[in-house]
Design goal:
The complex is a heterodimer of chains A (449) and B (54).
Chain A: H1 17-26, H2 31-49, E1 52-55, H3 57-62, E2 74-77, H4 104-110, E3 116-120, H5 158-163, E4 169-174, H6 180-186, E5 189-192, E6 212-217, H7 220-231, H8 235-239, E7 247-250, H9 263-278, E8 282-285, H10 292-317, H11 324-334, H12 338-358, E9 364-367, H13 382-388, H14 393-398, E10 402-409, E11 415-422, H15 427-440
Parallel strand pairs in A: 2-3, 2-4, 7-8, 7-9
Antiparallel strand pairs in A: 1-3, 4-6, 5-6, 5-10, 9-11, 10-11
Helix pairs in contact in A: 10-11, 10-12
Chain B: H1 7-22, H2 37-43
The chains are: A alpha/beta (449), B mainly alpha (54).
Chain lengths: 449, 54
């Protein structure tokens, strides 16, 4: 059914990327109307939600390119360079910095014809400890499902912007969860591709070896559409093939030292498994070569050391300009011994090799992302636990494609989620499972009020 | 280098990260490992030939 054009200018109806492209192709809406609706939502909600740090209204209106995403407004985390716009990554260390050129990924997205709305909220330098200290240049973004709750970080504005229709898709960056955690917290879909497929160049580095950009969208189908437009892949078509015959390995246990997933997450997980099973997926229980908790330990050691290496000069010269979360992470990194860093890298190598063998028997791993519901903002240890007690780092360590999607809502209306991982280059399998699940459930019909 | 005014905080945080690192397995074969992913990342991409840090 085609939604009348005037409806798109109302706050109550937010189109998906797929829906917006359809109505524009049918002539029921013009690109300018889709854009104006997004700008109206930003004007109405950003004062409370703080998802957009720099709005480039004139630039978005002036964008007249043509391509597969013409008329689909998007935003990008403020740790990527966009020519002529500030790129301060929410840090006093970079106050007043204006980017001279577009990051390559921005160039690639401009070529799709999609109008760029501006820069989205981030933790300082796209990193942190999970704790919120309220000491950065911009106020923290707020979760639209409950504004007293955290949005997930470090791409804190990306999920909020998409869930509320301020943007129809967003680009974040992820080292150990910074695309996937915001997607989980806001009920969106967050995707990581095989490393190197989407360029991180022109993005402020957090680590040398684990950073990846990734789209956040309302649906898995939308993510496929965006990736197809940028990369020339056929993920939307591949994802439409359904879940029948997919070998899905289920990993519930996060390993020693981590808590079990919260009850409502676990219940939605099991209900989702039943859906995939009905769709013909072959579900088996499995164990990763090393548990997620061991991967998390390795990723924390690698991440802290590499971040400290990248930003050591600033830590030495101007530590007082940093927020407490960034400074604490770098100080911890300075305490990592070379022997410990290498122990983490050896685990990483062995884990990566073992996962290659794992995929001989499985197409997709299904597990949790974080083990918690979106926490109350700034309430410790809730806030840190949401970020630090996760099953996200196996994909970070081994460079696996990963996808987080919504699996329902808690009794209090907070989004629930699961995570998929797959072999490098086999993103199509992940999209088959995610799009089949999405098509068989109605979780995408609910948006935050 | 750790700024002197943060030395105490750094020591406290170093203890924490050392406890995390101590949980990692150490019983690796006594042989030269294959290529390290960190090295691959810091010396550029085989696909693009880009040399960022090498």
């Amino acid at each position: 059914m085609i939604t009348p054009v005037h409806t798109y200018c109302m706050q109550s109806v937010i189109p998906t990327v797929a829906g917006a492209l359809t109505v524009m192709a049918e002539g029921s809406a013009r690109p300018e109307e889709i854009l104006e609706a997004c700008l109206t939502r930003i004007a109405a909600r950003n004062g409370t939600l703080h998802a957009v740090h720099y709005l480039d209204e004139a630039g978005a209106r002036a964008m007249h390119g043509t391509g597969p995403l013409t008329g689909i407004p998007w935003g990008i985390k403020d740790n990527f360079d966009v020519a002529g716009l500030p790129c301060i990554a929410n840090s006093r260390l970079r106050a007043g910095r204006i980017a001279a050129t577009d990051a390559p990924l921005v160039t690639m997205l401009r070529q799709t014809g999609a109008p760029l709305l501006g820069k989205l909220a981030t933790w300082e330098y796209g990193t942190g400890t999970g704790a919120e200290h309220f000491d950065l240049p911009n106020p923290p973004a707020r979760n639209p499902w409950d504004t007293a709750r955290f949005t997930g970080g470090s791409s804190t504005g990306a999920g909020v912007a998409v869930a509320t229709g301020m943007a129809l898709f967003a680009i974040g960056s992820d080292t150990t969860g910074s695309v996937r955690l915001p997607a989980a917290a806001t009920g969106c879909c967050g995707v990581l591709m095989t490393p190197g497929v989407l360029p991180m160049a022109g993005g402020l580095p957090n680590t040398y070896s684990m950073d990846r950009p990734g789209p956040i969208t309302w649906t898995a189908e939308d993510a496929a559409i965006v990736l197809d437009a940028v990369l020339g892949t056929q993920l939307r078509a591949a994802g439409s093939a359904g879940a029948k015959g997919l070998r899905v390995a289920v990993v519930r246990d996060p390993g020693p030292g981590l808590p079990a997933a919260q009850a409502e997450l676990a219940a939605a997980f099991e209900a989702g498994l039943s859906v995939l099973s009905r769709l013909g997926a072959r579900i088996t229980d499995a164990k990763l070569p090393w548990p997620a908790s061991t991967c998390l330990d390795a990723a924390r050691v690698i991440g802290a050391a590499e971040s400290a290496s990248i930003h050591e000069d600033e830590l030495h010269k101007t530590p007082e300009l940093m927020g407490a979360a960034l400074r604490d992470k770098l100080l911890a990194g300075m305490g990592v011994s070379a022997v410990d860093y290498l122990a983490a890298q050896r685990l990483r190598r062995a884990f990566t090799d073992a996962m290659e063998r794992f995929w001989d028997a499985h197409d997709v791993v299904l597990c949790f992302g974080t083990l918690h519901l979106p926490p109350r903002l700034g309430v410790e240890p809730e806030s840190s636990n949401y970020t630090m007690e996760t099953m996200l780092t196996p994909a970070s360590l081994a460079g696996l494609p990963a996808l987080v999607q919504c699996t329902g809502f808690s009794e209090t209306g907070l989004p629930l989620h699961w995570q998929m991982m797959t072999r490098q280059g086999n993103e199509a399998a992940m999209f088959r499972a995610a799009m089949a699940f999405e098509g068989a459930t109605d979780w995408r019909s609910r948006r935050p009020a | 280098m750790i700024p002197p005014q943060y030395a105490a905080r750094a020591a406290e945080l170093a203890k924490g990260i050392t406890i995390i690192a101590a949980r990692l397995p150490r019983d690796w074969p006594k042989e030269h490992p294959p290529a390290n992913p960190a090295c691959e990342a810091t010396t550029g991409s085989a696909k693009t030939g880009e040399q960022k840090y090498g």
